[in-house]
Amino acid sequence: RRLEKSNAQFKRAVRRLPLGVSSTFRYWGDDHTIYVESGKGGRITDIASVQLPDGDGHSARISERVWPTLVQQAIEAQSSQIAGVSGASYTSYGFEQSLKSALLALGHAP
Predict the structure, then answer these.
(1) CB 100 within 8 A of CB 110
(2) What is the pLDDT of residues 39-59, one digit of tens each?
(3) What does the H/E/C string look like for 50-87?
């Protein structure tokens, strides 16, 4: 997977914000931070993660299960303001905050 553009955006954000995000809670690590993968005319069309958080088997299963729902909610909302997924509150919150930081780094409203 080629992430040159996403990595360039992240490097730009790091110059302005510690770790490239507005809170360390939103930083999932260099290999876990999410990026807006594509957009068209200022619209979110897809969201990618370099790697989903997988600190343990349980977290990995939750992340894999809810990822498509969180992405769909963000695409429908065209923002980071999503409902989240019941039973995955930490994952939903982390996704929301990381997406918000990615959108801000791109100069878009979160």
Answers:
(1) yes
(2) 666 788 888 876 776 667 787
(3) CCCCCCCHHHHHHHHHHHHHHHHHHHHHCCCCCCCCCC
Mean pLDDT over residues 81-86, rounded?
Answer: 93
Contact 49, 34 (CB under 8 A): yes
Partners of 34 in beta bridges: 49
Question: Measured between alpha carbons, how far is 15 from 72 in angstroms, rounded to an integer?
Answer: 30
Q: Map tokens 């729902």 to a residue.
A: 69
Give 105: exposed, middle or buried? Use CB within 10 Å, 0-12, 13-18, 19+. buried
Contact (Cβ atoms closer than 8 angstroms) between residue 17 and residue 97 = no
Q: Residue 60 contacts by C-beta under 8 Å, 6 or more apart in sequence?
A: 52, 53, 54
Bridge pairing between strands 43-49 and 34-40: antiparallel
Name the pLDDT band for 38 (thresholds 50, 70, 90): low
Whether the CB-CB separation of 31 and 50 falls below 8 Å is answered with yes
Tokens of 24: 């360390």
